[in-house]
Amino acid sequence: DHCMELYPPAVGLERPRRGVDMALTRRLGGIYMTFTEAIVARYTQLCEEKGITLKELSRRSGVSMSSLRKYQKNPKTSMRIQTIKKICDVFELSISAFLNTPDIRNLKFR
Fold it and tell me: Is 26 left (phi over 0), alpha (psi -120 to 50) or beta?
């Protein structure tokens, strides 16, 4: 099972609620994306391109399956920069290159 199967692209969310940590959101034609969702979408895209399963990403990065699933299921969960770095290393990308996507570049602070 590939990462895409576990986290479909462009999942629509309701408008962020007040008080919920949604400081980093982006409006995508009525869809709001948190920073964590943008990161998950990016590693999901890379997994699909490289034919890597979520289990394989976990093994190669040292990030537990439970953590990867937590990020997918709970967009309010903060992801540590060390975790992002471990995922970047699997794809042989710098953090800068990993984050250089339209979705991530266009995130706005609320």
Answer: beta
Handedness of CA 74, 75, 76, 81 (dihedral sign): positive
How many CB atoms neighbour CB 99 within 10 A? Answer: 18
Provide the β-strand partners of residue 34.
25
Angle at 27 between CA 23 and CA 32, to 5 degrees: 65
Other residues' Cβ atoms within 10 Å of the Cβ of residue 57: 23
pLDDT of residue 81: 93
Q: Is the pLDDT of residue 29 over 70?
A: no
User: Cα dihedral angle (98, 100, 102, 103), rounded to 10 degrees?
Assistant: 40
Using CA atoms of 89, 91, 96, 100 in order, give the dihedral in degrees to the nearest 10.
Answer: -160
